[in-house]
């Protein structure tokens, strides 16, 4: 079942074309990776898919319904967006911050129900931050903050998770744990699009990839198709070694413009 579908999405800002005729589809049960060099347009695309920015042309549909037709409350129940390098401005406890993920499900002044509390607790446990629940969220380390913000997104129990570089600030252990978590999330009726720069991990965890460069999808399909030596040379200007020893690996050997 198609959960999210972008068709011919283009986006301009101050005469600069940031996205050009992007087509993307996300099926239920998929963990799809969005990769590409800095400035390719990945975050811009994710915000458009989340309904936070409106494309100049093209359309985005969630479960076959135009995203623009979906009431904001329903949209925020169904789609969770995890910002790149998210910041925390308010001195809330970690638990209260994660609880904000339930807001789309609550009516005005409605307090948290046992099922809301269960979702919050599950998110705290899944992301390994339960021990931080009473901490002031503004005092967290970069990696802890990342996991707290992921927990807030998961607490919303969305159908689609749009995660922008969720492992960039994490140590190798939490990188694996987080990608396992995203894979477990992307089962049955749910799905996730994840922006990654860690190509070996993208190859290992993603079902399919979209490779974006200069606002265009330059390749899409299986990880072995997209993560080719030629593609990596063209978009990242690197010479790579690619292999697989039970798990796939990609070693960037040389930056070709030096
Ligand atoms: N508010 C803005 N005003 C002007 N230009 C912007 C704005 N937001 C993004 N851009 C530009 O749009 C292009 C795409 O940005 P975007 O953040 O989508 O890239 P990205 O692929 O996510 O990059 P990265 O891997 O570095 O996070 C970049 O050239 C960026 O400088």
UniProtKB/TrEMBL annotation:
Key word Nucleotide-binding present: yes
Transmembrane parts of this sequence: none
Gene3D superfamilies referenced in this protein's UniProt entry, alphabetically: P-loop containing nucleotide triphosphate hydrolases
Family matches, as Pfam families: ABC_tran (PF00005)
Positions of the ABC transporter domain: 4-239
SUPFAM superfamilies the UniProt entry points to: P-loop containing nucleoside triphosphate hydrolases
Protein role: Part of the ABC transporter complex HmuTUV involved in hemin import. Responsible for energy coupling to the transport system.
Protein name: Iron complex transport system ATP-binding protein
